[in-house]
Fold this sequence. Notes:
Structural class: alpha/beta
Number of domains: 2
Low-confidence stretches: none
Helix content: 40-55%
Mean pLDDT: 96
Radius of gyration: 19 Å
CATH topology of the largest domain: Rossmann fold
Distance between the termini: 47 Å
CATH architecture of the largest domain: 3-Layer(aba) Sandwich
Amino acid sequence: MKIALLGAGAWGTALAIAFAGRHEVTLWSREDDVAVDLVKTRENHRFFPGHRLPDAVRVETDFAAAVAAAQLLVVATPIAGLRPTAERLKQAGCTAPLLWVCKGFEAGSGKLPHQVIAEVLGPQAVCGAFSGPSFAEEVAAGQPTAVTLASRDHRFAVETARQLHTRRLRVYANDDLIGVEVGGAVKNVMAIATGVCDGLGLGLNSRAALMTRGLAEIARLGVALGAHRDTFMGLAGMGDLILTCTGDLSRNRRVGLALAANKALPDILNELGHVAEGVYTAREVERLAHELKVDMPISLAIAAVLDGRVSASEELELLMARDPKEEAA
């Protein structure tokens, strides 16, 4: 299959490496210097150092040329880049099936990725989310990984999952697109919360409680948006939550650790050097929780900390002081 990966950041490069063994892969870079580096050294020193790009992967800076013959498009940009990329696809007249790997709600609109794609490319677009517990570094290294490919087009999900599936990258088809997207988005907020918890030295009991109650929040919001509750027990729900909250490679967890050390958010993001989607997602989740009247105390607490309305330690005390309630509530 001819695959065009749109975005030469960490994830675009990692997937190009992972797919190159079985597919004809083109990696499009928006940044000319990154493309030159990839062609010259076969390494993405700026965004993904230490991983060699196979010689078979074609690197492009010409967007139209990159997508012209593609049988599958994979948008590997942050959520902020999804709409501009979709608009370029529309301008290019490209109608190939589309996947995205970004996780979050679009800033300002609060839209999920599938809503952005439908708005730009139309509801007829064949598309889906590629999500689940996965760090780009481990995918590129060929370490065993399992992910979900979710689409409302069941046949597309099943067939594309079959084609992308390998012995090292297991791909499971799913038809709950909203659930997979919500799980992938809100777990980043919970990872910030877990980082704060760990940074304050509150112990493993606290971490377990935070993750468990965080999963309940994710499910509540997902169901309110039309997702299936069972989805949050799978790879894109519990699986992604566990990895992002506990893995040292998690950018969002590192944000939480730094917040616990009383570092300023702009400094944290500058030092990180990559996008931490949970920072932007928290604000949209807070707005949606109020709009839909969904109880999400952990998410709202993190939004308050990120906005500088309260310190991490103060917000923790407020969370722990909440009235007792039934676990299933």
